């Protein structure tokens, strides 16, 4: 995906700016489950979720394909931001207490994400479902829409702590999403 995705997202961030905005509501609503010190924010964008985690004392590795987004995060205390194409970048194993995967769908990343969790580590994930196009009639590339029940089944070796699927308000707008918190056994 490298070239086109990178250029598309760079252009989007140049046009819209790199102000991070408020953190994911799903992440915030699960803040009580956050434990540990090491976090990974995948496809971090301009880092709204990295900033939330860093403010709670985590050391955050923040990865994104867009150097425009990553550049905006550089120098933030507690956040190590790197340009990385997740379709090529291997993840370390047993390394993170928290992994955040918000508004990014790459199905072959589910197993490496589970393997990158330390014992008792949690993944907090949310992205849009097929209903986003079918019910809300929003234009969206269907390759990046979750099927019904797909996120619940995405991490078979982990214990599902919370999982929801349906229409929600995100940043004041309706979205059809699936959301999960799943934990690696100790
Ligand atoms: C919808 S944004 C979500 C950003 C952030 N997770 C959030 O919730 O604010 C999707 C992000 O995925 C990044 N992205 C797209 N393809 C990627 C890839 N192959 N590797 C890494 N990041 C990618 C884009 O640059 C963009 O920042």
Descriptive terms for the model:
31% strand; 186 residues; binds S-adenosylmethionine; 6 helices; 25% helix; Rossmann fold; 7 strands; seven-stranded mixed β-sheet
Helix content bin: 10-25%
Domain count, please report it. Answer: 1
Summarize model confidence as the mean pLDDT: 96
Looking at CATH, which topology would you report?
Rossmann fold
Give a verbal description of the structure.
This protein is an alpha/beta fold and 186 residues long. The protein has one domain: 3-Layer(aba) Sandwich (Rossmann fold), CATH 3.40.50.150. It contains six helices and seven strands; from the N terminus they run ααβαβαββαβαββ. A seven-stranded mixed sheet has the order 3-2-1-4-5-7-6. β6 and β7 form a beta hairpin. It is globular and about 40 Å long. The chain starts with a helix and ends with a strand.
